[in-house]
Amino acid sequence: MKKILFTVTLLSIAQHAFTQGFVDNALLFSRNQPTGSARILALGGAQVSLGGDYSAALSNPAGLGMYNRSEVSFSLGFVNQLNNIQYGNTTSEEGVNKLSIPGFSYIQRQAYNDDKLISGAFAFTFSRTNNFNSRFSYEGDFDQSSLIDYFIDYANGNALTPQDLEGDYYYTLAGLGYGSYLLQDYDDNGFIAYGSALSPLPGETRTIRQREEVIRKGAQSQLSFSYGANYDDVLFFGATLGVATLRFQQNQFYSESNFRFSDDATYNPLRSFDLDENFDIQGSGVNFTIGTIFRPADFVQVGLSYATPTLYSLTDSYTARIDANWNNFDYFGDGQTILNNTFSEFDVPFISEYDLRTPAKFSAGASFISEYGFITADAEFINYGKAKYSSNIIGESYDQDNEMISNEYRNVVNLRVGAEFRQDIFRVRAGYNYQADPYQLNDNLDRTIHTISGGLGIRTAKFFVDFTMLQMNSEGRRSPYFVNGLDSPEAFLNIKNTHVIATVGFPF
Predict the structure, then answer these.
(1) Helices (H), 297-412
(2) Average of per-residue pLDDT values in the chain
(3) How many whole angstroms separate alpha carbon 225 and alpha carbon 457?
(4) What is the DSSP secondary-structure string of 397-417?
(5) Pick from 401, 378, 406: which is nearest to 391 by CA?
(6) CA–CA dist 346, 382 (Å, integer)
(7) Which residues, in sequence order, are bridge partners of residue 294?
(8) CA 230, CA 222: separation in Å to the nearest integer?
(9) Is the dihedral of CA 195, 196, 201, 205 positive or negative?
């Protein structure tokens, strides 16, 4: 049998198991997808200076002041989310299909007996602002590191004792690794250190079959209570109180198997181990939006809007389990502990309660209008590094997470442009939406989101119907773990989302 030899490298303190998740989620919950009615989505989401659509409640409520009649509308959508994944020399494709209700609205217009203040409109609207549904998996051989190395790094870097791993630190992956015998403590000249029966010897190559599957579900939505007014058909102004809801679920299944050691091909203590993690985040928040649109001439409109940060109160539930399938392994070499199937799991979910403040948004736009249609464009200014976590629980600090967010994300300008051609009751539309890469570090990965869209519509005095198709493209990268001083496996994702949306409305 291969001799078990542990070597100790005291590295800098490893990140907490959940830290990177908080940093990633701050961006995920702040970077909204294009949203609105089928008409607005066909225009690339550009609407800050346009008005006359229920989507204005979310972007610039001043646009509600352009309604000349009351209205109800309803939207139905279909989303195809497709990931092309490259891991080493292996390429795979996986995705999900989902029906959704991206929005509905009720607009109540009021006419005023005033020479200058012509009218106003109250609006109650619902908008889906983010769709989290996604699925991908990858598999391949890797010989640079293992998740077990993360366990070792975490335990050694934090100078943990076995009592720590069985107590307060049990709710970490290292604690579960210790409980399933993947992590072992030993005496190193009077100090407690950690290694594993599955660690390679110095200079030895260890090759592992690794596989991960990630399934995401959920969405962000907003109920908007809005008002917009029309002053002399020249100046429009409005405000929105938004009540946001968030539900995010992620299940990630990771496994390692077929351990091969270059110095001893017969050494085979473990068949495989599996890690199953489940995240469930839900909560609600509030925000406030104000805006104005100025029409200096009949053919041009300019708009400005400001959306405050959304203040979320969130509850985060996390569970994890490790199952290790040993090969009748004599763990201590004394015949006393023979391992076959071991497992370790959280007795109860790890619950976190905290607040998240997403960044504020400032938007400006211009529209140029003729009897044959219009061209409209927006610019949105947002600093993703301003997202911030906080907690009222004594002793609970998110300073490290907030510092990482500030260092990792940056200020960007997102652009939207669209055009509509009109002929009698028929409408033809096209648009483009550019969401800039929010990361400060240039790591040869383009996380810009490009969205192209097009649509058709029919408008009569009694009803309207709009159809839109849009396609979003971006890139991503997935690493199941990070270990100081060692390379981690990386899967590269080419992400393509195709949306089909229909909106039906009835003016009255």
Answers:
(1) 399-408
(2) 92
(3) 27
(4) --HHHHHHHHHHB-EEEEEEE
(5) 401
(6) 39
(7) 235, 302
(8) 25
(9) negative
Rounded to whole angstroms, how far apart are CA atoms 507 and 68? 9
Which two three-digit tokens encode residue 233?
């058909």
Tokens of 364: 């400006």
Decide: 238 and 304 in contact? Cβ < 8 Å. no
Helix then strand count (H, E) for the chain reads: 7, 21
Let me know if 379 is exposed, middle or buried by CB neighbors in 10 A (0-12, 13-18, 19+).
middle
Domain boundaries, the chain: 19-507
C-beta separation of 416 from 33 below 8 A? no
What's 238-275 look like in SS3? Answer: EEEEEEEEEEEEEEEEEEEEEEEECCCCCCCCEEEEEE
pLDDT tens profile 357-405 = 999 999 999 999 999 999 999 999 999 999 999 998 887 889 999 999 9
Which DSSP state fits 503? E
Residue type, 373: G
What is the tens place of the pLDDT at every residue in 275-297? Answer: 999 999 999 999 999 999 999 99
What is the pLDDT, as a whole number, of residue 334?
Answer: 83
* Of 38, 33, 45, the residue nearest 73 (C-alpha): 38
Q: Token pair 């049990």 is at which residue?
A: 170
Say if residues 282 and 16 touch (Cβ distance below 8 Å).
no
What phi and psi values does residue 28 have, to the nearest 5 degrees?
A: -55, -40
Q: What is the chain's length? A: 508
Residue-wise pLDDT for 442-477, tens only, equals 888 889 999 999 999 999 999 999 999 999 999 999
Q: Give the 3-state secondary structure of residue 334.
A: coil
Q: How far apart are CA 222 and CA 98, in angstroms?
A: 19
| Mean of pLDDT values over 28-38 | 93
Q: How would CATH label the architecture of 19-507? A: Beta Barrel (2.40)
- What pTM was computed for the model? 0.88
Strand partners, 306: 290, 362
Q: What is the CA radius of gyration of the chain?
A: 27
Structure tokens belonging to residue 56: 């204005």
CA neighbor of 429 nearest in space, from 420, 417, 442, 441: 420
With a cut of 60, say whether residue 10 has pLDDT above it. no
CA angle 183, 189, 195 (to 5 degrees): 15
